[in-house]
């Protein structure tokens, strides 16, 4: 949850969606007591104790509130969660007991639906990704009828563990079957959730269709086709929070609005200075991304020369695979003053990059939703994207950005050529910028869609009980 700790887009969703849903529901969050969470929460009141189960250790259940009154349950277990690194691992390696760490989280969610807090209980669980996906399975095995919605943020991450994990986390032997948690001889947390949840969602309509096909289904396309055929798989596009507004953002060098292109140019100048680029009137391209194969970083590297040959400059910020970090750093070394690279992440610099750049490169091979393209649009930077998943749903070609169908260097170069041509036609460029900036990407629509889905989940519960 971005209020406390995040490793990707899910952190933003977990902070923003519950706040949008509060207009319609009594919403509370459950999160592990990671070191960063405990340090930033301040006072956490212990309101209950959760018993151990199989090899899952017991823990205390804490409760606190954010400054704006959002209720937060915190699992207090130093043994499981008080660690250096990210919530999932350290130095790029997953923690060896992630099966127990996230089985504890899933079981706690199920217990909150069964009275773990004597003052409040969940009527419905909204679960995110494999780390919580065992919750509906625990409910089913205990005979509970609480409905659940499982959202897939990236199907490629499935929480797969050896068969021996079955007994470590207290699953019954008969759960290890095709219609259960078995996945090619191993145990999949995500598959358990996909099978037992009342409703399954993912974070864009296009991605919801893509994952029912073998090429994008990561071995789960058959189960997902079944859920879709029953009307139990939906795509609901993520939004972005209201801080992404160039008129009020305190991170920017100069705040601006649609039509104020001098303000946007001032942010471009700040970015150039910050990355050591030469003064230029040419287009500024940006990459703000995890530096991994999924994000098409190799395609951007191969297409970079086309940007430079067209009079453009390139700034990059992110971290990820060492091969890409090294290749980008080498590119900057070969082209001083024209390419700037920063390995790591800085919030202020990222926002200025969105505000100052003319184009954002995002040639992801697959992208369930994506947020960077929406941030860019809000700040008048036109995304250049591979038409997949949420990128296809948010970028209209030559209206709010540029898209290409074939995930190849050729496809990306062709889109860059069209962007460079548009940069030379200011009336057209500014028209596209204004259209992109006026796109409604708030969470309000998504909150209404989820509310409707919750109602369907209650209906599914009644039908299953019958």
TrEMBL record:
Function per UniProt: Synthesizes alpha-1,4-glucan chains using ADP-glucose.
Pathway of action: Glycan biosynthesis; glycogen biosynthesis
Binding annotation for ADP-alpha-D-glucose: 6
The keyword Transferase belongs to this UniProt entry's keyword annotation: yes
Segments passing through the bilayer: none
Catalytic activity reported: [(1->4)-alpha-D-glucosyl](n) + ADP-alpha-D-glucose = [(1->4)-alpha-D-glucosyl](n+1) + ADP + H(+)
Gene designation: glgA1
SUPFAM superfamilies: UDP-Glycosyltransferase/glycogen phosphorylase (SSF53756)
Keywords, comma-separated and alphabetical: Glycogen biosynthesis, Glycosyltransferase, Transferase
InterPro entries for the chain: Glyco_trans_1 (IPR001296), GS/SS (IPR011835), Starch_synth_cat_dom (IPR013534)
Protein family per UniProt: Belongs to the glycosyltransferase 1 family. Bacterial/plant glycogen synthase subfamily.
Protein known as: Glycogen synthase
């Amino acid at each position: 949850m971005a209020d406390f700790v995040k490793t990707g887009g899910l952190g933003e969703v977990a902070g923003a969606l519950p706040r949008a849903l509060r207009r319609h529901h009594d919403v509370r969050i459950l999160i592990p007591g990671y070191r960063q969470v405990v340090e930033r929460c301040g006072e956490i009141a212990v309101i209950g104790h959760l018993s151990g189960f199989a090899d899952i250790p017991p823990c205390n259940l804490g409760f606190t509130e954010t400054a704006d009154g959002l209720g937060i349950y915190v699992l207090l277990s130093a043994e499981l969660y008080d660690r250096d690194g990210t919530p999932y691992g350290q130095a790029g390696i997953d923690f060896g007991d992630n099966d127990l760490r996230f089985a504890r989280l899933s079981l706690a969610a199920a217990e909150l639906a069964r009275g773990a807090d004597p003052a409040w209980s969940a009527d419905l669980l909204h679960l995110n990704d494999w780390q919580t996906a065992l919750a509906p399975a625990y409910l089913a095995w205990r005979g509970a009828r609480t409905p659940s919605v499982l959202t897939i943020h990236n199907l490629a991450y499935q929480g797969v563990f050896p068969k021996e994990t079955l007994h470590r986390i207290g699953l019954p032997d008969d759960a290890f079957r095709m219609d259960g948690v078995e996945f090619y001889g191993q145990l999949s947390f995500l598959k358990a959730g996909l099978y037992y949840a009342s409703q399954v969602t993912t974070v864009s309509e296009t991605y919801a269709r893509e994952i029912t096909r073998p090429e994008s289904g990561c071995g789960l396309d058959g189960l997902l086709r079944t859920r879709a055929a029953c009307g139990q798989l939906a795509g609901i596009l993520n939004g972005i929070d209201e801080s992404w507004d160039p008129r009020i953002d305190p991170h920017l060098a100069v705040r601006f609005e649609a039509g104020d292109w001098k303000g946007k140019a001032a942010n471009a100048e700040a970015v150039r200075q910050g990355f050591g680029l030469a003064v230029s009137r040419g287009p500024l391209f940006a990459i703000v991304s995890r530096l991994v194969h999924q994000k098409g970083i190799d395609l951007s590297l191969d297409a970079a020369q086309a940007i430079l040959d067209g009079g453009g400059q390139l700034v990059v910020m992110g971290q990820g695979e060492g091969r890409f970090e090294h290749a980008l750093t080498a590119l900057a070394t070969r082209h001083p003053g024209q390419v700037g690279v920063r390995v790591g992440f800085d919030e202020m610099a990222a926002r200025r990059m969105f505000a100052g750049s003319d184009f954002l490169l995002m040639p992801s091979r697959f992208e369930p939703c994506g947020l960077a393209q929406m941030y860019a649009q809000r700040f008048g930077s036109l995304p250049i994207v591979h038409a997949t998943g949420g990128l296809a749903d948010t970028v209209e070609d030559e209206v709010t950005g540029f898209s290409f169908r074939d995930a190849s260097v050729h496809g990306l170069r062709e889109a860059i050529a069209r962007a460079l041509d548009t940069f030379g036609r200011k009336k057209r460029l500014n028209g596209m910028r204004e259209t992109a900036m006026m796109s409604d990407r708030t969470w309000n629509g998504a909150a209404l869609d989820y509310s409707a889905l919750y109602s369907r989940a209650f209906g599914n519960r009644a039908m299953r009980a019958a």
